[in-house]
Specification:
By secondary structure, the chain is of the alpha+beta class. 25% of the residues lie in helices and 25% in strands. Helix 7 (246-260) packs across helix 9 and helix 8 (271-278) crosses helix 9 (280-291).
């Protein structure tokens, strides 16, 4: 099978499947000039809000009329001509124009106007860039080893494979309808070094270097993903492939997923849900059937043996007399002047090549020994340091509420400011990876961090405030695994002393002179045990509660399955009441955006502290409510 027909719309399809069945997203490519002429406000809503994402153009409700554009930069390798072109694009938008390095070695542009899109696309094509199929239910940017081809210790140069895979999926950047109707988004990574620089465990398909009978190839992992409802590390397919078999295997897996993946509930549509439903053996058999041949069994061991490298600093290349220099770009944020300067120094001192990492940083390769001293004196390196402070060095952040309507909190600016303060208060002997993400979609990947911070709505003094859930125990590199939630509902304004204590207790930080120790855990209760990546283990952190002395309202919630009935405090959500009663209800965002906490209302009425965005008309008709922001009006009964 090499293609798929777009299914006819039916009443049982969810909103997104109906939009896809009515018109493939690639079809709006022919309408860009028309959109530019009529303006964003006159556009068909489905075209503007959804189908444009197939072209990498994202309408952002928090910045109406100012779109985001996501590019495709396979293996994170770009050049001065391309970066200069991107700088010219955002320069015209002034303060609204920014570029963000992403956690998939990619770049997103902010501030884009719809009337400029046709000219922008022509400019991108002239320098060999594309944004096609970079959003919605498509394969996202292909990640690879950031020092491919220049690392003296690498096992395989991933550059050509990443480019070939992108060309296969996107029809050489023109758009490929064969792969534009996947059930959900899809991530692929190819590793060629010993340190798992690609974060293999969080990809739908990951290729890990492994030797079999002395021959180089890849062990294959499948099913890794983050979502508001569930996060899972990729699992072994128990298969090993040669480099020249990678493209065919990716095609086969994509086709099996496209034609059989679950589509009714988008929260259960990622590849791992299909593997769960079928079982791994059936999934592998179907892939082999599509491939037309059996897969070889995996190699007994892979070659991921090193701890993760961040590539910040100065390093010798495999090419005699050449160096690469890794620059720390705080939370990946670039402005036009930064991009012009990156392009200039890449030309003056290197070969014009620029590389991006999953840590949101940049690498300038191919700098001769004779030019290195002068390069290190460049003013840009005062902003993009080669030796940042330990906490600053490993900081990662998603876009946050400044530009993203899914984010529940502001992340980038807050992350930089808070880490700067903590770097001044504690001394560390090695970096601690702190990742911020604004919502449960986890673009900032908190589950792979030493300390992960996920935006949520917390309560303080009876009021909803910006807060975070804290994840701990994530590990990258050798023996990588995902962390778990350790502390819930911490107001952002109370976060610094808690982080400081975690750094002291779990990462051997020392308080600087004049900084007083404090016990920020007083009055809190604990969730499940967490195994921390530094080997320490203790009862994990706290969930804020109403505490003693709360004034009870006349509102009550009765849990039908357990028979428990709880009187609620003023402003208390049903979810909080459940936790107080020891009743476990699923939850994630605590802001009404993900739907994880959805429960059926049997009797009574609820009101919401915020917008219940995760409820659609079908949910409401069936009596479902969101317990995370739902508050009882009088007495209510829920089926839990």
């Amino acid at each position: 099978m090499t293609s798929t027909a777009i299914p006819t719309a039916t009443q049982t399809q969810n909103k997104f499947e109906k939009i896809k069945s009515e018109k493939d997203g690639l079809m709006v490519k022919a309408e860009l000039e028309h959109f530019a002429n009529i303006g964003w406000e006159a556009m068909n809503e489905a075209d503007r809000d959804y189908r444009l994402k197939w072209l990498g153009i994202f309408f952002r409700p928090v910045t109406p009329g100012k779109f985001m554009m996501r590019l495709r930069i396979p293996n994170g390798i770009t050049n001065s001509e391309q970066i200069r072109a991107l700088a010219e694009i955002i320069q015209r938008y002034g303060d609204d124009g920014t570029g963000d390095i992403t956690t998939r070695q990619n770049i997103q542009l902010r501030g884009i106007r719809i009337e400029d899109i046709p000219n922008i696309f022509r400019k991108l094509k002239s320098v060999g860039l594309t944004s096609i199929q970079s959003g919605m239910d498509n394969v996202r940017n292909i990640t690879g080893s950031p020092v491919a081809g220049i690392d003296a210790d690498e096992l395989y140069d991933t550059r050509e494979l990443c480019n070939q895979l992108q060309d296969t999926i996107t029809n050489n950047g023109e758009g490929n309808p064969e792969f534009t109707n996947l059930p959900r988004k899809f991530n692929i990574a190819i590793g060629g070094c010993r340190d798992n620089s690609i974060h293999a465990e969080i990809n739908d398909i990951a290729f890990i270097p492994a030797f079999k009978n002395g021959i180089f190839g890849f062990n294959v992992l499948v099913g890794g993903f983050f979502s508001a409802r569930r996060c899972d590390a990729a699992i072994p397919l128990h298969a090993w492939v040669l480099p020249d078999e990678v493209i065919d295997l990716c095609r086969a897996i994509l086709i099996v997923y496209r034609d059989n993946g679950l589509r009714a509930n988008r929260q259960k549509s990622r590849l791992m849900w299909l593997i769960d439903e079928w079982g791994l053996n059936k999934f592998r058999a179907e892939v082999e059937k599509e491939l037309g041949r059996p897969l070889q069994l995996e190699a007994e061991k892979d070659e991921i043996e090193w701890e993760k490298r961040d590539h910040i600093g100065v390093y010798k290349q495999k090419q005699t007399g050449l160096n690469y220099v890794g620059l720390h770009v705080p939370v990946g944020r670039l402005y036009a002047e930064d991009m012009f300067e990156l392009a200039r120094i890449a030309d003056v001192y290197g070969s014009g090549e620029i590389r991006l990492t999953v840590e949101q940083n940049a690498i300038i390769p191919n700098i001769p020994d004779a030019r290195l001293e002068a390069f290190l004196k460049e003013p840009l390196l005062e902003k993009f340091s080669i030796s940042p402070q330990p906490l600053t060095r490993a900081l990662v952040s998603c876009t946050g509420a400044q530009f993203c309507n899914f984010a529940l909190i502001e992340t980038k600016n807050r992350a930089v400011a808070l880490i700067k303060e903590l770097d001044g208060e504690v001394t560390l002997t090695k970096p601690v990876r702190i990742h911020w993400t604004g919502c449960p979609n986890s673009c900032g990947q908190p589950q792979v961090a030493d300390i992960g911070l996920m935006g949520t709505k917390a309560r303080k003094n009876g009021k909803a405030v910006e807060g975070v859930d804290i994840y701990m125990g994530g590990k990258v590199g050798k023996d990588a695994h995902l962390g778990s939630c350790a502390m819930k509902g911490i107001p952002c304004e109370d976060l610094k002393p808690i982080l400081r204590n975690l750094l002291v207790e779990h990462f051997d930080a020392k308080l600087n002179p004049g900084v007083e120790s404090n016990n920020s855990n007083a009055g809190l209760i604990f969730t499940d045990d967490v195994n921390y990546s530094n080997g320490k283990s203790q009862q994990s952190s706290p969930v804020n509660t109403n505490g003693n002395g709360s004034v009870l309202s006349k509102n009550k919630v009765h849990f039908a399955k357990s028979g428990k009935e709880i009187a609620l405090a003023e402003g208390q959500s049903i979810l909080e009441a459940a936790e107080q009663a020891g009743i476990e209800l699923p939850s994630s965002c605590r802001g009404g955006s993900c739907g994880t906490c959805k429960q059926k209302l049997v009797q009574g009425e609820v009101k919401y502290d915020g917008e219940p965005a995760a409820l659609d008309d079908s949910d409401r008709a069936q009596g479902y409510i969101l317990t995370c922001i739902g508050q009882a009006v009088g007495r209510v009964v829920i089926d839990a």
